[in-house]
From TrEMBL:
Organism: Nonlabens spongiae
One Pfam match: HTH_18
Stated name of the protein: HTH araC/xylS-type domain-containing protein
Lineage of the organism: Bacteria, Pseudomonadati, Bacteroidota, Flavobacteriia, Flavobacteriales
InterPro entries for the chain: Homeodomain-like_sf, HTH_AraC, PchR_regulatory_protein, Tscrpt_reg_AraC-type_HTH
Domain HTH araC/xylS-type: from-to ranges: 244-342
Any one Gene Ontology molecular-function term assigned to this protein's record: DNA-binding transcription factor activity
PANTHER family with a match to the protein in the record: REGULATORY PROTEIN PCHR (PTHR47893)
Domain of life: Bacteria
This protein's record includes keyword Transferase: no
Keyword Transcription in record: yes
Record Gene3D superfamilies: Homeodomain-like
Record SMART domains: HTH_ARAC (SM00342)
Keywords attached to this entry: DNA-binding, Transcription, Transcription regulation
Amino acid sequence: MGARFVKNSNVQILTVKSLPVREVLKNIAEQLGGTVQEDCEIFSYTIPNEYGSGNIMGANFPQGLGWIQYMCKFKRDTTINFTVDEIHPLKMIYNLGDSVLHTFADSEEKHDMQRYENLIVASSNFNGHVLKFQANQQIKLNSVEISRSLFNKYWSCNLSDLDSKLLKAILDIEASEEHLMKGPYSLRVAQVFRTIESFDYGSFIKKMFLASKSFEIVAQQLLDFSTESSGLSSEETESLETLREIEHLLENNLSSYVTVKALAQKLNITENKLQKIFKDNTGSTGNEYIKNKRMGAITDLVENSDLSISEIAKLVGIDSTSYLSKIFKEQYGISPKEYRDQMKKARA
């Protein structure tokens, strides 16, 4: 259960020798200082100012699933060695920030994860994992962790109809071989992470929410591998990058891009091509996608801001407050003001 910390002027090395997630964070806290906080078995650790900023948090859920999120920055190059003397969880690592390196503990081969890439790794036998973070880089990393023996106890009968490299790795409960899969993650997975980032409830509700989203990520990843076992083509990768650019535009300036035509002009592509990208990757038309994004933004602002309804309408590109109230009531059966009042009472 011990931990080892090595620091010099260039690099700091953290060693994690424990499971589950709570013990992982405790090991890190033992080496850098500070304490691990708990809220309904969701554990969080704030990086001390001496070493960086931000936090690492995570939880374990029933049926063999866990989740760790790194939202931090280190002042020095930092290496975390995971050296638990048992079979390690399968790690589904998703990078939303600056580049991160992974290696297996017994190998010098480096696996570089750029932004919007994921790495799925399972070591052989008791071999561990190494994560390397560069100094002063913005780390936004999510790792869904699967204890394969426990996971298969509950789910193996439902996995037999799938055929993919990922399924093979999940079923390898004895860790008989090493598994490695790398590439861009799908837009549907990216959307799950955005909902996680925007969720601001605490305690029991948050744990239920994170558990459900972790299972959703695993399910979506299995679907992605079963339908794209040969990997993404250059055209598919380009489409995903286009959609991520759209996401950025809509998140930062939704009022300017309320039509497919406006987006197409900004991206310098035809409307027909853009509609095809939407349909192939989201299952909806561009207009439906923008409408859903706008409704999501409206709901978030009604729930989590003190902006007036007219101010919210302006932010999402709607000229009429009455029209915003109309589409909101069609969606939820209640006016925005009534919805906000109910949310305030529920939180109180």
